[in-house]
Design goal:
Blueprint lengths: L1 H9 L4 E6 L9 H5 L6 H7 L12 H5 L5 E6 L3
Antiparallel strand pairs: 1-2
Length: 78
């Protein structure tokens, strides 16, 4: 999965990504607590970049965020 994402980014191919909305985040930490990969999602959202190659795209953080500060969709790397 990591190799495929790295190649897609290098070739600027759109892929599934998480998108942060830092202005909506209230720093509750629910997203980080429910992440099965143990990623610090709250910190990633605050920085404005929720995209990580270690993410398995389970969408638990999206479902668990009470303020909808994390979205998902298809896009290219910025």
């Amino acid at each position: 999965m990591v190799i495929g994402e790295t190649i897609a980014d290098a070739l600027h191919i759109p892929r599934f990504r998480l998108k942060a909305k830092p202005e909506n985040c209230v720093s509750c930490g629910k997203c980080s607590k429910i992440c099965p990969m143990g990623l610090n999602i709250a910190e990633m959202v605050k920085s404005g970049n929720a995209d990580s190659k270690e993410c398995i795209n389970c969408l638990e953080c999206v479902d668990g965020c009470p303020k909808k500060a994390i979205e998902f969709g298809i896009s290219r790397k910025r």
